[in-house]
Amino acid sequence: MRLFFIIFLLVVQILKQITSYFTGTLWGALLLSLSIYYGASHFCIDVLSFEEIIFMPSTLNPETQAMLAASLISVVGFFMAFHTSAKLWAEQKKHSIGFDIAESLGAHSKVISQESIFICSYLTVICDLIEDVNSGVEIGPERTSYLFFQAERFQDAKSKIIREVDELSSLRMINNFFLQTKKGVDRILEAMIDDLNNRKIDISVPLPFNPKNHCDIHWIKEFSDTFDYEKAALSAKKISHTTASSVGMIKGALYSPIVMPGFGAYWDMLKDTKGFISFLISESDRMKKNKT
Questions:
Q1: CA distances from 208 to 7, 55, 122, 215, 275 (A)
Q2: 22: left (phi over 0), alpha (psi -120 to 50) or beta
Q3: pLDDT one-digit tens code per residue, 14-28
């Protein structure tokens, strides 16, 4: 039953596209007119031959010829102007939607990048602190005070990343139909969101500080043995890299109908061919890994 419903929807969509082409485009209207003209004889309808249509105006008086020519010019001109304006409006609307999506992606990715950079630096300092604790270095309150008082900022940064990733998922679902019209864009965005969902789990580590005594070394050791803070810091760094690279490719694809790269961009790409190819390979491997 479900398969039948899907096939029915597919057939309806195909018929809708065909009808839209024949009634909404100049070439479609021409093909439809020719089909009706040449198919009229099958329904026992007498129509003028092509030669009769061509030479018929010559049999009319000059006044009728002038009126016919003026009417023909007006009708054809109006139809062409309407078709051109409708097509330009549709193209403009399509570009506008693409630009709006690109701007939204840029806004969300900016927050994710900023917060992930802070989390990465914060966790890196914690990793250095843990390494010194395990090495027997004496830890003074001045080293843990900053980390302890920035704990709320760290939690807020994690919450922002989670919220922004959810916003990206909603943005993709809302604009999925449009993104499917851009080759590869939806796949890149899906891979990025999947990667961010995996990374945000890695950075969700508790802070190794005793609320009553943030210099408690035993507390720090216990947490460092349980949770991998180095992995969390690396994941935060990869969040920033993944977001910047993926959103950059998506925005490039969405802006490309209007803003095309110039000669300088291609020249720089050729000069760094090795780095560019390595980047494409790494991104392809990352998307394949997320897919599996």
A1: 57, 94, 12, 10, 39
A2: alpha
A3: 888 888 877 777 778
